[in-house]
Structure formats: C-alpha cells, structure tokens
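Bench notes, afternoon.
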Amino acid sequence: MREHLVGLLERLGRVPTSLHQLLFRLAVAGIFLRAGLTKLASWEPTVALFRDEYKVPVLSPDVAAVMASTFEVGCSLLLIAGLVTRLATLPLLGMILTIQLFVYPQAWSEHLVWGSILLYLLTRGPGALSLDHVLTPVLRLKPAAHARR
C-alpha cells in the first residue's frame, strides 16, 4: 500500500507546472472577464453601482467604472493568451486591494484566493503554455559586446 502511495505521489509530482500556470490564468481571467463583460453590457447600471454601492474613494464613478471595465476585460484577455502576463496581473491586484479595503472587506477569502493566484503568476510567470514563453526568446536582444566582459 505504501509503495502505491509513493508511486502515486511521484506521478503527481511530475505534472508540469506550466499546466498549473495555464489553469491559474484561465481561472482568474474567467472571474474578471465575466465581471467586465457584465459591466459593459449594461453601462448605466454599472455607473450607478460605482456611485451608490462601491463608492471608490478619489475617483468619480464614471472614471472608476471605465478603469474597472478596461482592466477586467483587457487584463483577462492578456492572461488567457499569456501575453505580458506579469504586467497584466498588476492592475487586477490593485483592483482586488481596492475592493478589499474600500468596498467588500468581508469578502477577504475570495480576494485572498484571487490575489494568491495573481501573485503566483506575477512572481513565477505564465508558464510554457503562453505567448510570453514563445515570444521571449524572439524579443531578447543579444547583449552588447562590452557587457559580455
């Protein structure tokens, strides 16, 4: 029995990290993309929601609604493609922090999950199943001759 368990754990340990990274990207993008598309589908109620319920400090409801919708849709699409993934995590992390602090502080468990996934992608990257992985070698420039010494 112990040998079977050890064998199973070894096989599980061989699951590529890139598969986890792809699933993380799709999972968190699905949450934010759905929210962004909902906002875009009914704009007047979206602005009203920012004005009456969310009440984000410093930003007008119109500006906050535009920023949130843009980040949710744009960054989600980038995460799905795995394109500029690390950069795409930053606005979403900022949104989660803002929502946690000013809008729904009681939703910390959801925010912790989303933030943890985004933090993993920020620090570890999108993985081999991404456009970033394909494009990085293409975009890298050779170091200057004096920099190699």
